[in-house]
Amino acid sequence: MSRFKYSVGPWNVHSGADSYGPPVRDEIPFEEKVKKFKEIGFDAVQFHDDDAVPNINNYTPEQVIEEAKKTKAILDKYGMAAEFVAPRLWFDPHTKDGGFCSNYEEDREYAMWRAYRSIDIAKVLGCKKIVLWLAREGTLCFESKSPVESTKKLIDAINKMLDYDKDIQILIETKPNEPVDRSVCPTLGHCMAISAATKDPSRVGGLLESAHAMLAGLDPANEIGFALAMGKLWGVHLNDQNGLKFDQDKSFGVENLRTAFNQIKVLMENGYGNNGEYIGLDVKVMRTENQEGSYQHLINSLKIAKALEEKAEKFDYEFQKKCVEERDYEKLELYVVELLLGLR
Ligand code: GLO
Ligand code: MG
């Protein structure tokens, strides 16, 4: 029995198209995904605004709310909650040079329209969390934008969201690069500084994705610990990554087992989940997988995460204390590896 509740987004089951090739699997309808997520053992679904309301641009704000109710009915049918809504500010032509920090006022207004609609949708789906993965907020060409102005524009956009609704919480999902070269808000440290600069820091926190931390050259378990110390870790996207490459979204724990263990361990030690937080798994199946394998990465990631929960339960804190007293960290390190190898 897991102590955590787990969540997943519809984009985590996809047809396999990438920058280098077309789809290799069939698209699966949203409702079928929700049904399967439930069967696999998930408790909640994560949304982009246009996952909840496809073709969102075609609707008035009132119509968006009506459309969102259809999605809510599907969640209710399968007993699934909604964890968050994230405006997808990287697909639409208006956002090709960023949303909130775009150089063009019209595009910034469009980004705010999507942010407000995301808040409206969250209300209908029964959640308070708005996630900002700031995909294109940054530069491809450094001199095209001022890093000072971009940071201020981001704070301004968050302030407007906080004003729009008094209940919502904003979670910045930090990432250092991709698709931009240099991101405005690359790490949770930056996120905390942005939070402090907004009009209501108590409603602005972070979401840590393992792979994004690794792309910034950081240990995700440490990033998790930092945000927990600030009382601002309100979401996680656990996954894995083989070094400094493109964002791989590999199954949790398959490349870096020890830091995967430590991510779970730090979450457990600090009561993550006690305020209703979910462990989100932002993983993608390999392109080589066939149609039947469409959910295999989710099944595997859940299995690994739960196995690591058990390992963390077994962690011998007395032994750890003794090693620290003796300052014998070699002994402690061997202990951890033996625990993970099943030798303990
Ligand atoms: C990509 C991000 C992306 C977000 C999602 C929700 O690198 O991890 O998958 O998590 O859009 O904000
Ligand atoms: Mg993510």
Task: Describe this entry's structure for a reader.
The longest helix has 21 residues, at 105-125. The protein has one domain (5-314): TIM Barrel (Alpha-Beta Barrel), CATH 3.20.20.150. Strands 1-2-3-4-6-8-9-10 form an eight-stranded parallel beta barrel, surrounded by seven helices. It is an alpha/beta fold. The protein has helices at 30-40, 49-52, 61-77, 105-125, 147-164, 188-197, 210-215, 220-229, 257-269, 296-314, 317-325, 329-341, and strands spanning 6-8, 44-48, 81-86, 129-133, 138-139, 169-173, 182-183, 204-209, 233-238, 279-281. α4 (105-125) packs parallel to α5 (147-164) and α9 (257-269) packs across α10 (296-314). The structure holds D-glucose (GLO) and magnesium ion.
